[in-house]
Amino acid sequence: MGTTTTNGTGLDQTRRLGVETTGIEIIEESERTARPRDLFWPWFAANVSVFGISYGSFVLGFGISFVQALVVTVVGVVISFALCGVIAIAGKRGSAPTMILSRAAFGVQGQKLPGVVSWLVSIGWETFLAILAVLATATIFDQLGWSAGTTTQVFATVVVAALIVSASVAGYHVIMRMQSVLTWLTGIATIVYVALTLDEIDWSAVQAVPAGSTQQMVGALVMVMTGFGLGWINIAADWSRYQHRDAKGSAIVGWNTFGGAVAPVLLVVFGLLLAASSGDLSASIAADPIGTLGTLLPTWFLVPFLLAAILALVSGAVLGIYSSGLTLLSLGVRVPRPVAAFIDGVILTCGTVWVVFFAEDFLGPFQSFLITLGVPLAAWAGIMIADIALRRRDYDDEALFDSRGRYRAVDWTSVATMVGASVVGWGLVVNNFAVDAAWNNWQGYFLGPLGLGTYVDDPAGPYWDGNWPYANLGVLLALVLGFVVTYVARRGTVRRQEA
């Protein structure tokens, strides 16, 4: 079955050190001791970040009113984390990582298609979080009047990378304990931040923000969903695979949704109030989220604010690197799980060093590339959710690792669905970094023929004219297409697999 554990005294020693040696194999029955409420801690800790306040500026940037933005925020955050909760049900049913359980839908070898996409998305976004943590350190040091030069950035890079890599290598049990502590630290610091900046809210300015169109609301909704729940959906079952067999699916969905959504909803709403109160503040947040939020604080709280911001970003990065290591194993890399996490941690560190110290124009193209991967990831999510909805029994453990088993080597229906939904989805999204990542301007090819927008090749920078282009309908359509096609076309296949 491709297990990656060690034997004898080596295994005993790593267990005493708290290092998880379990890789992509099925979790033993005796180790499935987690309860649904335990899911609250990792999801809450990874999302109770002051960076969430910045999303208020991003949402209002779509040209909608505070009330419209409030609706978009609540609906987008809650639904996206609820979808993560549905994926988490598979973890309880199969007690294996998300990308292993996805083999039931794509086939043991066919799963490598979404597996590669998932690995790139996970390691990419977590590198982005690490970069934000390092840059935030330099920004706050500058505000304090301390040195914000190369030495500070080197120190911040070493500390951030060490925290992320060490926790990811240690594994599930250490991460769960760490997240429960970080939940309190970052939660308290965030509450203090809100209390200290309440006087920045101008209620008359908030009420005066003009309303936008339906298309603008849809665009903001897609941005919120992809920025929160859908950004985690490819790793959701990794944290539920230690759940008791008798855990209720509804409880897993509920705790997953509550843990992931409660902090972002409150933080984004507060961010909406701040951004709507001051146009200058909103524009500054878009350019430098952490640093701008720090300018609202008294000097005495800048250091606690910095620590809370960094720990929250590190918390999210740890979840991603841990899961990207599991995905690496699912792709056939034969190393122990801690080594896989370490490999991805090294890649994260190298990426952070390159961006912070050497790259002159990297963040825009980097984000453009990751957003592009969001379309096939949404298609995969729709397929996986439909597959979970169709199943009535637990997974066949052995068949998940056997190309000759009931899940076969490749399920061509799922592969074709993912490819087709991605092609359609890319045709209805546009590149938000048209100048910095001109090589990615090939997207949006269905907008013109469908009369949804016009591409303007302006010498100052190309852009799309119209109400729908920046709504990024392709993400939602890829999700819906993946679900509907799978639910209809694979019903008989799932029944045969479970027979």
Secondary structure: elements and pairs:
Blueprint: H1 8-16, H2 40-47, H3 51-60, H4 66-94, H5 98-101, H6 103-106, H7 112-143, H8 150-170, H9 172-197, H10 203-208, H11 214-227, H12 249-277, H13 279-287, H14 289-294, H15 302-330, H16 337-358, H17 363-390, H18 412-426, E1 454-456, E2 463-465, H19 473-489, H20 491-498
Antiparallel strand pairs: 1-2
Subcellular location: Membrane
Protein name: Allantoin permease
Transmembrane segments: 39-60, 66-90, 116-141, 153-174, 181-198, 218-237, 258-277, 297-319, 339-357, 369-390, 410-429, 470-489
Question: What report would you give on this structure?
Answer:
By secondary structure, the chain is mainly α. Helix content is 65%, strand content 1%. The protein is built from 20 helices and two strands. The protein has helices spanning 8-16, 40-47, 51-60, 66-94, 98-101, 103-106, 112-143, 150-170, 172-197, 203-208, 214-227, 249-277, 279-287, 289-294, 302-330, 337-358, 363-390, 412-426, 473-489, 491-498; strands at residues 454-456, 463-465. Strands 1-2 form a two-stranded antiparallel ribbon. A hairpin with a 6-residue loop joins strand 1 (454-456) and strand 2 (463-465). Residues 1-17 have low confidence and may be disordered.
| Fraction of residues in helix | 55-70%
The order of strands across the largest sheet is 1-2
End-to-end span in angstroms? 22 Å
Strand content: under 5%
How many distinct domains? 1
Q: Given the C-alpha coordinates, what overall shape results?
A: globular
Rg, Cα atoms, Å: 22 Å
| Number of distinct beta strands | 2
Largest sheet: 2 strands, antiparallel
> How would you spell out the order of helices and strands?
HHHHHHHHHHHHHHHHHHEEHH
Count of helical regions: 20
What's the CATH topology label?
Answer: Hydantoin permease
User: What's the pLDDT, averaged over the residues?
Assistant: 87
- What is the CATH class name? Mainly Alpha
Task: Output the structural class.
Answer: mainly alpha
CATH superfamily: Hydantoin permease
Any guess at the CATH architecture? Orthogonal Bundle
Low-confidence runs: 1-17
